[in-house]
Structure formats: structure tokens, C-alpha cells
Amino acid sequence: MSAPITSTLSDDEQRVTGEALQGTVVDLIDLSLIAKQAHWNVIGKNFRSVHLALDELVTAAREFTDEAAERATAIGVPPDGRASTVAGQSGAKGIGEGWTSDEDIVNIVVENLAAVIERLRSRVKATEEPDPVTQDLLISITARLEQLHWMWQAQVA
Amino acid sequence: MSAPITSTLSDDEQRVTGEALQGTVVDLIDLSLIAKQAHWNVIGKNFRSVHLALDELVTAAREFTDEAAERATAIGVPPDGRASTVAGQSGAKGIGEGWTSDEDIVNIVVENLAAVIERLRSRVKATEEPDPVTQDLLISITARLEQLHWMWQAQVA
Amino acid sequence: MSAPITSTLSDDEQRVTGEALQGTVVDLIDLSLIAKQAHWNVIGKNFRSVHLALDELVTAAREFTDEAAERATAIGVPPDGRASTVAGQSGAKGIGEGWTSDEDIVNIVVENLAAVIERLRSRVKATEEPDPVTQDLLISITARLEQLHWMWQAQVA
Amino acid sequence: MSAPITSTLSDDEQRVTGEALQGTVVDLIDLSLIAKQAHWNVIGKNFRSVHLALDELVTAAREFTDEAAERATAIGVPPDGRASTVAGQSGAKGIGEGWTSDEDIVNIVVENLAAVIERLRSRVKATEEPDPVTQDLLISITARLEQLHWMWQAQVA
Amino acid sequence: MSAPITSTLSDDEQRVTGEALQGTVVDLIDLSLIAKQAHWNVIGKNFRSVHLALDELVTAAREFTDEAAERATAIGVPPDGRASTVAGQSGAKGIGEGWTSDEDIVNIVVENLAAVIERLRSRVKATEEPDPVTQDLLISITARLEQLHWMWQAQVA
Amino acid sequence: MSAPITSTLSDDEQRVTGEALQGTVVDLIDLSLIAKQAHWNVIGKNFRSVHLALDELVTAAREFTDEAAERATAIGVPPDGRASTVAGQSGAKGIGEGWTSDEDIVNIVVENLAAVIERLRSRVKATEEPDPVTQDLLISITARLEQLHWMWQAQVA
Amino acid sequence: MSAPITSTLSDDEQRVTGEALQGTVVDLIDLSLIAKQAHWNVIGKNFRSVHLALDELVTAAREFTDEAAERATAIGVPPDGRASTVAGQSGAKGIGEGWTSDEDIVNIVVENLAAVIERLRSRVKATEEPDPVTQDLLISITARLEQLHWMWQAQVA
Amino acid sequence: MSAPITSTLSDDEQRVTGEALQGTVVDLIDLSLIAKQAHWNVIGKNFRSVHLALDELVTAAREFTDEAAERATAIGVPPDGRASTVAGQSGAKGIGEGWTSDEDIVNIVVENLAAVIERLRSRVKATEEPDPVTQDLLISITARLEQLHWMWQAQVA
Amino acid sequence: MSAPITSTLSDDEQRVTGEALQGTVVDLIDLSLIAKQAHWNVIGKNFRSVHLALDELVTAAREFTDEAAERATAIGVPPDGRASTVAGQSGAKGIGEGWTSDEDIVNIVVENLAAVIERLRSRVKATEEPDPVTQDLLISITARLEQLHWMWQAQVA
Amino acid sequence: MSAPITSTLSDDEQRVTGEALQGTVVDLIDLSLIAKQAHWNVIGKNFRSVHLALDELVTAAREFTDEAAERATAIGVPPDGRASTVAGQSGAKGIGEGWTSDEDIVNIVVENLAAVIERLRSRVKATEEPDPVTQDLLISITARLEQLHWMWQAQVA
Amino acid sequence: MSAPITSTLSDDEQRVTGEALQGTVVDLIDLSLIAKQAHWNVIGKNFRSVHLALDELVTAAREFTDEAAERATAIGVPPDGRASTVAGQSGAKGIGEGWTSDEDIVNIVVENLAAVIERLRSRVKATEEPDPVTQDLLISITARLEQLHWMWQAQVA
Amino acid sequence: MSAPITSTLSDDEQRVTGEALQGTVVDLIDLSLIAKQAHWNVIGKNFRSVHLALDELVTAAREFTDEAAERATAIGVPPDGRASTVAGQSGAKGIGEGWTSDEDIVNIVVENLAAVIERLRSRVKATEEPDPVTQDLLISITARLEQLHWMWQAQVA
């Protein structure tokens, strides 16, 4: 079965845009898993505050994952968000195992957000010509992640 | 830093219960990723019905993941739900990549649910003695997954 | 068509558990019909209070009916909740026809609840071994009906 | 205790209207039990769609049952909605036991709705003179059941 | 300024329908004031139950007052719901002043409802020919008041 | 494919009722498009008030369109609400193009409502015998449109 | 039956406070009836705006009526809010019958509010000594009515 | 650590106001425990009505406890609401142990409310000069408790 | 009356942007009428699923119609959404009359969406220079319609 | 008056279960009072976070108190939750008076939770044989308190 | 145009009360701008907690601003809340520009609240005679700001 | 302390974007204060309509202020929204003091919106290259303000 979903994009536009979206899907799934991992393993004086803020990050990451994946389907590209794909292709920095202090968690989140944002910034540029509709979605994801990046970075400032 | 979170369980009770919960966390995260993958890649006459039902499965899997992981923390065991851990340890059957017919999706979901349920059933038995509180949680997860298993199997009956 | 829905239970476990659930479905449907009958036919000084309390009982009975019936399907046993089955197999005490005083209604409800609770208690014991998942459901039904039994009995105390 | 609830209707008007309402109560309770039975026992490709649509039918049948029964009380006639009364007097067509294919379920629902609607149509005529208030209720029940009848029949068209 | 609001009704139809609606407006305002008076002055064992039920009556009376008055405007007849008009033209039975026992309150409500319902019944007949749209409204008011009449009468049964 | 949806109405009853409903569907769609057109093009001191009131009219027209169209399907008549059908068969008065003063808008709405109400009144009479269920729906549409007619006419009074 | 409800107030305090509350109850009921009368009979360019604002006034008047009346009961004084009492004792200015222009309505509302506020101001003073609890309620009623007075007066400014 | 929270009140004003608030906190906690005790142990014909009304009392007592305690903190006085403090200092009348008839419960509630209200009345006077802000809070607590006192006393009238 | 609403756009920018928005308004109104037509006339096994999905399409089309039309007003161009304009200028493919199978409906929706999306894509390009604010709106409409296009196309894949 | 509420438990089962529930009621009331005391008296950098978290603990303790007390009534044992009983029988560790630093509060909460959990664990064992329905409730209380114990302990880790 | 809004206050009462309200409006607007400034510029470990608490302060300040300003209009005094007026007349302490540590922010908020509260306290006294209605509003503003003052001061205790 | 919040923008991009956002924050705060000033001081026949519409403008201005200020923080630029900054740097036209007629208010709002929109338009252009994420936010602010500009201008058309 080939190309059951069609699009008005040219093959090239579809390829470039599809890669940008697939990369975004993988990064965001990983970000949500890292944030959940942190949500469970954080300890320290600011436990409650960090624990709650992490779930806001999870919610954002999950909603954008769905939007990016469904944008891929809309241009005829089947997204891949399976565990092994995420483990192999994610551009996030990751997180260690076991109990982790709240201060370390804040730094880990800042680093992971920075890595994902940087990749999103280059995808915003890459999709401007081939598909402004996709670009618009990537801009709104970037906007929200940069807002979260500020909020987490403010804690180590 | 060792054992920052204490519990009334003996070391042995904690070990057995912790393994049951860690295994459940991994299986459920994988189940949620598989269901999302199916949610995006399903095609066919029953697309809409299957697409919607998969999100109910995702919701259930995510909520139980959180409950199982936080039960692990409550008995002093740090849960591990990172992408690579899930990719390496999950007991679910998995799903292939690319567009997939609704009929195939139904079969894939039934198989994955069956595999996860079977492991849960053995964990219900394993935790009865060491920690009835954890057993109670595993029973309620099993109950809901068996209900979903019926609903998906009913579609191939 | 035979056994379209499969289960991890052995034949024996399935038979015992299925009978417990089928009996519960029938008792609860009857209880909901009796409570509605009372809801419409009650008269007397405490009309309003009794009228309202009966609808809480109806709601509880209906929700548990659905849970018990869908638990039966989940273990591969098709439930039977048809009018004639209920009329023939219910273990509830029933209610007479026509206008009935609020005092009589309270006694009728207490008796019917007591009869249904007693049968549930024995099913809780019967399902402990074959299916702790079903037992857990029967325990929660019993808990709620015993709470309602207290509330109704308190009115004749 | 005789006639505790009075009405402005003459004895004859009360008798005709009371019979129409009692018949409606019985038919609608049976319809709700049949729909629940179908809700639990349906299997097949369209399981989810049919399963959900049946609960809308249950909701409609239950709400109208209550309105019809309380209209009976309002004109001084005590309604009878007990299991044995329903089993003995219902004008619905009924449903068999056990797992049933989605296609059969659709046909069973269409037939049962058609039978109940036909009886309602004759009651709309019968109550026009004796009690236009009751007629108005029966008209609104008929309107909704005919809408549902179309929706179910559309599936076999 | 004469007849600023026009209608498709003939002068005669307008006059008959307008009188039916004006009478209904007055009766319902009085009913709401009587019910509030009772709501404040009731004492006795069933205080709470009666106190709450009276506010349901107030709510019903107020909503129907608005519907009847706005139906009058819709057919070009300005409604009159001023205190002196209500005091002078109401067909309700009224209520005495000061603290009143719950048993007396129940009887007072039953009598007032009966008086208002009887007048509504004759207006339902009177408006059938001139304006079925208004008749339909009066039927729904009658239906609700007769339901409330049953509920209050049931308390003295 | 012929007559996939059946009805208890005779051919003649179905024809008369079907025409009444089809005419109502067309009139109401046109009314909703006219009201939206006015909603966007109104200017003048009362802009805000008129702008908001027009959306209430749109909401009413849309809901009744759906009820009328689905009543047609329920009696086995397929409704036709396509743009060209509406443009060709509507009984509404219409509206000019471009910016329009609030005073003119009020007059335009009053005229359009009056035209639609007059046609509804004759359909209420026409359907009384063949189908009282449909008549009941047309009565409730008339009631609401006459209420809106008063509210708009009150602004020019 | 005398004085079934007791209070910590002296006889004199109770009398003065009771009169202030009874007067307030009567004024507010009349205000709500006047506002409803205006709500139905207003015509003119500002119909919609005035029509809506009048219902806010009705809501305020009704809620304060209930609070004032229940404060009277709380100090052992049975309130009297019957139509004839309102017609005989109200200190509001009243309203004429029939269609009334929006400009006249605004003036009528301003006058009625001014009259009621003036009486409330003197009751605030009268109750300061005997019962500060009642005074506090009267102050909050005055605050809201003075706010509404400004809003209505602003329309004639 | 001394006086970490400052206030604009003089030492004397702070002492008087602080005592009034501390006494109120203790009385209200005891009132909430008494009402819960009654909520569980009441039996008799009016069980349901009394059972529900007691929870409204609990809710009121709990909310006012929090407001009084946080007002104490706002003026720099640390409140004390521990079980032994409540047991030792409460001015409420208390309640016996075990099942208690609904009639006795009503009397117990009336007596406890009366005792608490009397103490509140004297605190309203005591705080007028030192802190009108605190007085305003005590007035609103008194107003609500006197309303509840009427509602409970009305049941024994 | 000419140009009562002003804009910062040049005449040329206004003309190009206005045409893009007017074309979008017409296409979307037609899409909503086509989807409603399909909603009523669809028959077949997937009736329920298709019937529900069509109302999601109607909702989307109506909301975007309003946004596009109000964007036109914001740049000083009066939109035209009258039935005859829609019938004459729409770029959608349309739909036939009478009962239509669910499979045909799916194809009809896919074709109509494709036609509307193609026109939107060219308007996104056309408005980039003259008015990026309007372009942003057209991009979000395109994004949603392309998502719906995928969902409908997935059903024929 | 003896044993007005009956149960299916034997005298011995009732005694053991009743003691477990009565002890739980007392511990949980004390826990809620301690948490409120801490909520008001906490000071320090983490004031806001701790202040908010304490109210979640209060909510949990209050809800479980009610469930445990009503479970006691359901098995025929009248619960005792009066201030003096709580002061005398509680197994919680208690809290000192006056302003307390956030760090001390966290330790106090951890200790009190640990003490209450330990007693609950032994009651879970004690009730397994005599009443699995009560055991199920105690398990769910334990599960939630152990979750809270982790969250508070994490702050000192 | 002079004095379009009238009041029952004497000129002197109006002047004193008007000044108190105008001063309050200015202080509260400034407080809301200071809190927003802090909300954006705070950095440090407690960022999230402080960031959130500041928005609660903004909400309180904005709501009280509106109430104070509308109370001024109600007594015939036009309030002035323009930026330059606020910049020139505010009694708050203000805040510096740029990133600010969380500890500094807490101190800044405590100081600003203290300054505004002190001015409110004197206005409460000043308005007691001329207008108790306004005094009541100022008391409730003071109560809430003193509660917030405690909460912020508790963080530096 | 310098640059605690980092960004992926170059210094130049950060400076240009930061200035655009700071200017927007100031303009929007001023707009919200002007709209509130108008909300309180408007008088005239259209008082209510204008009064309500002004609060919609306040809500929009406040929400966009927050988004713009938090976008500034996200790119590492601390926003300045203090009263003196707003008074000194705002590009809005301002509003006079004292009671103002509704007609004047409409003109004042139109002028202020026009001034703010013009500045936003140039910022949309200025940020296109340095930061498309910020540009996207400025576009959505412009879109909403231009919609409001139309609505206010329509009132003077």
C-alpha cells in the first residue's frame, strides 16, 4: 500500500517538511518521557514546586507531539513515535536514573529544552519555503518551549 | 545519596513489589506509545471509530503509568520510564511502522493488551503477600485493561 | 458462534465468576426497578425525602449493573439482563403495586437491600480464589449497598 | 387507601389516559433493558459505534419512562414498572440471549423501535380528547423515538 | 402610541389569547409570592424539606411567568404584572400571615396549585382555536404544575 | 435506491408533511444566512447591540433547521438544504449587499421574520391532521420566531 | 403559637430591626415586579440593552429580598411579602401600564431606585445600635442599589 | 523567634482582637466536630434531612474557622486549633456518644448554635474599637450562624 | 455611504486581501451547507460515524466563515455571504440530492475539501505581501481543513 | 436504645472491624487538625508551597474520616469523633503551638504521617478475615497517605 | 456638563468620601502594575512560587480597583485612573527595573502592601461618619490586603 | 547580575525584538488603563453597551500585555511596565478626565486603537527577520486589535 494520503505539496516539499515534523515528534515524545522521569524522581526542598511544574511541561510536550504528528499525516507522511525510534533518534539530552536533587533537575530540564529549541529553530527556517502551514505550527511550539525555558532558567538565575 | 524515601516494607517485600511496579510502568508507557502510533497511522473504513478508541486507550495507559510510578516512589523505589528503558524492557508486542489498515490495528491492539494483561495477572499474585496496597492498584489496572481488551476483541469477533 | 471473547481464566474460574456476575446483574436490575417503582408510588409526610433518596439508589444500582455486566463480558461470559430473566431469577424481595406509604417504602427498601447484600457477601467469598479482579468489584458494590442499607435502616431506627 | 392523588380529569378520561401512560411506561422500560442487553452482547466490526449508540437509546428510554410514569401519578394513576409487569405486558419485540453480531443488533433495534412507535402513535390519538397535556408528552416521546428509528434504519439502508 | 407590536392573529383571536395569558401571568406571580411567603414562614419537623421544595415551586412559577408574559408581547398584548394588579386579579387562594406549621403549608400549597391548574385547564381549551402556539405553552405550564400538585398532595396522602 | 427510510405515515400524509418541512428547512437556512450577512455589515450607533442580537437569531435558525431537516428524515423524506435550493426556493425577503445602517438592519430583520412566520403559521394548520408530531415541532419554531419578531419590532416601535 | 423563633435581641431591638427588614422586603419585591413590568413593556431603539439590564435589576432585587426576609426570620420576626402587603406598603414609585418608551423606562427606574435607596439609608442608621448584623446586610443592599442607580442615571446624563 | 508577623494594631488592640479570634477558632472547630458526630450518629424518620443539613453546618463552620484563624495570623497572632485546645477551651455545649434520635439531634444543634452565637455577639462588641476589620468578619459569621439557628429552631417550633 | 470602515492597507493591498477573504467566506459557507446536506442524507453501515464527523466539519466551516468575514470587515471590505452569492461563486464541488450511501459521502467530502484547500493555498501566497495578518488566518484555516482532509481520506485508504 | 443498625457480621467480626475503624476515625481527625494548625502557623521561605500542600492533606484526611466513620455505621458501630475523644485517643504525634519554620513543619508532617500509616498497616491485616469490605477501604486510605508521605519526605531528602 | 450623577450624600460627605476612593483607586492600580512588573522580572530558586503568588495579588488589586472606582461613580465622583495620575499620586513604594531576585521581590511586595494598608486604615476611619457604605468596602479591601501581607511577610519570617 | 536569561538570538536580533516587545507592553498597559478610565466615566444613552464593550477591550489588552512581556523575558529582555514608564513612553493618544459622553468615548477609543495598531504594524515588519516567533505574536495582537477597531469604528459609521 503506497501513499494513501495525498497532499498538495511537491515531493521535495513533502520530504523536507516530513523530516522536520518527524524530528519534532521524536524530540517531543522524549521530552515528555524525560519530564515524567524527573517528575517521579525529584527530591529536595523545592520538590512540590518542581514536581508540579514538570507536569505542565509534560502536558505541553504531549499536546505538541499530537499536533506535529497529525500535521505529518496531513501532508501524507506517516509519523513514527515508537519507543525504539525515540530512543534512537531523539535530539534531547536525556536524564540519569534514580533519585535526583531538585537543583539538578532544574539544570537537566533547562539543557533538554535548550537542545530541543535549537533544533526547532532550524526547522522553522527549513520549512518556511516548502510549507508555511507547517512552519506556523513549529513557530507556536517554539514560542511555548522558549517560554518554559525562561521559567526554568529563571530558577537557576 | 541512598534511600531518601523510606517505607514500612521489609527489604524483600520492597524488592518484589518494586519489580512488579517497574515492570508495569515500562509496559504501560510502551502501550501508550503503541496506541498513539496506531492513532496516527490507522487507515480504512473504520478510521474514525478506531482513531477515537485509541485515544481512550492512551488516556488509560498514561493515568495508570503515573499511578504505578508514584506507588513505586511511595515504597521507596525510584521508577525508570526513560525511552531506552522502555525500548529495552517492555513486555508489549509492539507495532510496525507506516500506514496500517484498521483491521490490522485492531488485531495489534488485542495482542498487545493480551501480553500486558498476562504479565499484570502474575504481578497481582506476586504482590499479594508483600504489599496488598500495591496489589490493589494492580487489580484495578488489570480490570480496566481487561475491559478494553473485550471492547477491542469484540471488533474481531 | 462460540466464545468470541477470550479470557486468561480457566474454564472453572470462568464458570464460577460468571455465575457470580450474572446473579449480580439480575439482582441489581431488579433493585433499580423496585426503587423506581417506589419512587413513583410513595406517599406520606416524608414523600419528598424518600422520593429523592430512591433516585440515588436507582443511580447506584444502574451504575453497578453496568460494571458487573461489563466485567462478565471482560471474562468472556455474555450477561443476560432481559426483563423475563430478571423477573425469573432475581434474589430481591420485590414490592407490591399501587400507592404505598413512606413508612412501608422504607421497610421495603431495607429488606430488598438486605437480601441483595447477603447474596453479594457470599459472591465475594466465592470469587476470591478464581478471580480477585471480579472480587474487587463485588467488594465495592457491597460497600456502597451497605452504606445505603445503613441510611435507610437509620430511618426506621 | 383509595385515590390519594386527585385530578381534574373525569373517571373516563382518567382511565383512558392512565392506560396509555401505563402501556408507555412498560414499553419504555423494556426498550431500555433490551438496549442494555444489546449494549453488552454486541460483537463485530461496528462494535464501538453500535455500543455507544445503544447507550443514547437507553438514556432516552429511561428519561421518557420517568416522564410518563410521573405524568400517570399527576393524573392520579399509580404506575407499575416492576420486572414481572414489564415481562408480561411489554409490546416490544424483545431480543435473544448471548453474543450477537452488530448487524443483527441493528435489525433488532429497528424492529423494537417500530413496534413501540406504532403503539405510541395510537395512544397519541387516544389521548387527544381526554387529556391534551398527556398527548403533548406522548408526541414528544414519539418524535424522539422516530428520530432514533431513522438513525438506526439508516444503518441498514 | 397604539399597537406598536403587530401579530398575525385577528382582533378576536388576539383578545381571547391575550386574556388567557394576562390571567396566567397574574396567577403565576401570585403563586411565586405565596410560595416565597411560605418558604420564610414555615415551621415544624419537616421545615427543611418543605422549605427547599417551596423554592422549586418559586423557580417554576417565575420561569413560566416570564414565558407567558413574553408570549403576550409576541402577540401584541402588553402584560400587566404589577403588585396591585396581582393583588386585585389573582385567582390563587392566598396564604395567611405569620409563622405557619409545615402541615398547614402543605395544604395551602395544594389548594393554591389546584386553583391555578383549574383556570389553566380552561385556558388550554379557550386558546385551542385562536392560537395553538399559545395553547402549547399553556399545556406545558399545566403539565409542570400538575406534577408539582402531585408531589405536594402526596405529602398529605 | 428508493425509500430506504420508512414511516408509519400514509403516502399522502408523508407528502404534505414532507413539503411543510422542506419549505421550513429552506426558509430557516436563508434566515440564518441573512442574519449572518447583517451581523457582518451592520454599522451605526447601535452596532454592538444589533451585532449581538443577530447571532442569537443565527443560533435559533440553525438549531431549528437541524430539527426540521431531521424530522423530514424521520418520516422518510430526504431534505434539501443546498445553496442553490435555498437561493431558488426561500420565502424570506432577503437583504442587500454592503454596509447597512443599524436602523435599516432592524427593519430588514422584522420583514424577514414576518415573512417566515406567516408561512410557518400555514404549515402548522396543514400538518395538524397528517402528522401532529411534525405540527408540534412547527409550533415550537413559530413560538420562538414570534418572540424574536417582537424583540426586533420593539426596536422600531 | 407565639414566638417559635428566638433571638438574642431585646424586644425593642427586635421591633426596630424587624420593621427595617419588613420594609426592605416589601420595597424590594415591588422593585422586582416593577422591573419585570418594564422588562416586558419597554419599546424603542434601546430595547435590547434596557431589556437585558432590567433582568439584572430583577436578579439583584430578588436575591436581596430573600436575604432580608431570612434575616427577619433569624431575629424571630415573620416577614410578610404577599401581593396585597406589597401593593399597600411599598415605598417605591411604581410604573404605569402598557407599552412604554425606553427613555421613559430609564427615568422610571432611576426614580424608583432613588426612592428605595433613600429609605434604605435611613434604615442603615436606625439599625446601627440595635443590630449591627442587620445593618451590615442593609449596607450591602444599599451599595449594590447605588451602583445600579449610577448605571441607570448614567443613561440620562 | 518572636513576632515574625507584624500589624498596624497597638499591643492592646492586638491582644483583645487576638483573644476574640482565638476563641472563635476554637468554638467553630468544636462546632464542626459536633456536627460531624451528629451527622454519623443520627437515626430516626428524618434521618436523611437532618443528615444532609448537618453537612451544610460543617461546611459553614469549617470555612469560618479558616477565615477567623487567618485573620488572627494577619494581625500577628498565631492561632491554636489543636484537638486538646479545642477539648479544653470550647464554649460549645457538646454532644453525647452513640446513636441519637433525630429529635434529640435537632435540640443539640440548636443549643450549641445558641451558645456559640452568644459568645460571638459579645466579641462583635469587643472588637468594634480595636479592629473594625475583625469586627466585620465576626459580624458575617454571626449572620450566617443566626440564619442556621433559625433553620434548626424552626424544626422544633 | 462609502468606506465607513478604514484600514492601514493601501487600496491595492485592500483589494487583493479583500478578494481572498470574500472567496474564502463563500467557499466555507458552501462547505458548511454541503456538510449539513450530507449529515442528513447519509445512509449505510457507517451512518453514525459519518453523521457525527460531518457535524465537526460543519462546526469548523462555520467558525472559519465568521473569522474570515470579520477579517474582511476589519480591513474595510464588506463581506457577502448571501445564498445567491454562495450558489453563484463557490469553488466547492457540491453534492447531489437525496439519500446517499456513506461511501459516496466520504468521497464527496474528500473532493470538496480538496477543492477548497487548493484555493486556500493560492490565497495564502497571494496575501503574504499585502497583509501578513490575513495570511496568518488563512494559514490556520488551511491547517485545520488539511487535517480534516486527512481524516476523511483515511477512510477511503 | 440498642443496635438500631444491623449487619451481616458476627459479633466478633463487628468488634474487631469496629475498633479498626474507630481508631482510624480518631487518627484522621487529629491529622486534619494538625495539618490545619501547621497551615496557619508555618513561616519561612517555602511558606506558600507548604501552606498549599497542607490543605491537600487536610482535604484527604477529612474525606477519609467521613468514609471510615460511615463504614463504621454501615457495620452497626456508632463512631466517636468528638474533640475530647480525639485529644485522648489519637495515635498521631501532634504539633507544638505558635509560629513554626517551614523546615520543622515538613518534619512534623512526615512523622505524623508515618505514625498514622503504621497503625493503618496493622489494621489492614486485622480486618482481612473479619471484613474484606472494610479492609478494602483501609487499603485505599493507606495508599493515599503513603503517597503523601513520599511527597513530604521528598522535601527533606 | 456638571454633576450628571447625583447622590444622597451632602457636599462635604461626598468630598471626603470621594478623596478616600480616588486615593484607593490610584494606590491599587499602582499595586497591580508593581505586582505585574515583579511577576515578569523575578528570578531565583523560588521563581515559580513567587511568580504565581504575584498573579493572585494582581487579581485582587484589579478587582478592588474596579469596586473602588465604581463606588466613586455611585456617589457622583468621577474616578481618575490614568497612567500619569497613577505615576504622580500613588502612595505605594514602587519597584526598580530589570531582573530582581526572589528574596528582593518578597521584601518589595511586603513594603508596598504595608504602605497601601496604612493609607487604607486611615481612610476606613475617615469615611465612617460620612458614608458607612464606602467604609464597608474599604474594610473588605483592607481585610484582603492584610491577609496577603501576612502571606508575603511569612516568607521572610 | 547580568543576562540571567539566555536566548538563541544574536545580540542584534535580541535588541530589535526586545524594543518591539517593550514598546508593545507599554502601549497595551496604557490602552487598558484608558479603557478602564472610559469604562468608569462614560455617560449617555448608550452607557450600558459602551461600558460593557470597554471591558472586553480591557481583557484583550491585559492578556496581550502578559503575552508580550513574557515573550520579552523568553528572549532574555526584562520588560518594564511601571506606571511612570507607561506615562512617559506610551504611544497611545490618551483620554481626558471626568464624565465623558458615550459619543466622545467611541471616538477616543477609535483614535487610541488606530495609534496602537499603526505602531504594531511597523513592529510586525521589524521583527520578521530577527525573530519570526515574536512576529507571530505581534500579528495575532494586531489581528485582534483591528477587529476591535472595526467594531468601535462601526459605531460612528
Sum up the structure in keywords.
homododecamer, 157 residues, mainly alpha, Ferritin, two-stranded parallel ribbon, 73% helix, elongated
Which class best fits the helix and strand makeup of chain A?
mainly alpha
Q: What series of H and E elements makes up the topology of chain A?
A: HEHHEHH
Strand order of the largest sheet of chain A: 1-2
Q: How many β-strands of chain A, per DSSP?
A: 2
> What gross morphology of chain A would you assign?
elongated
Reading off the top of the CATH hierarchy, the class of chain A is best stated as: Mainly Alpha
* Strand fraction of chain A: under 5%
Helix content of chain A: over 70%
Q: Which spans of chain A of ≥5 residues are poorly predicted at pLDDT below 50?
A: none
Reported CATH architecture of chain A: Up-down Bundle
The helix tally of chain A amounts to 5
Q: Compute the CA-based radius of gyration of chain A.
A: 16 Å
Keywords (chains A, B, C, D, E, F, G, H, I, J, K, L): DNA-binding
InterPro entries (chains A, B, C, D, E, F, G, H, I, J, K, L): DPS_DNA-bd (IPR002177), DPS_DNA-bd_CS (IPR023188), Ferritin-like (IPR012347), Ferritin-like_SF (IPR009078), Ferritin_DPS_dom (IPR008331)
Domain Ferritin/DPS (chains A, B, C, D, E, F, G, H, I, J, K, L): 19-156
Family (chains A, B, C, D, E, F, G, H, I, J, K, L): Belongs to the Dps family.
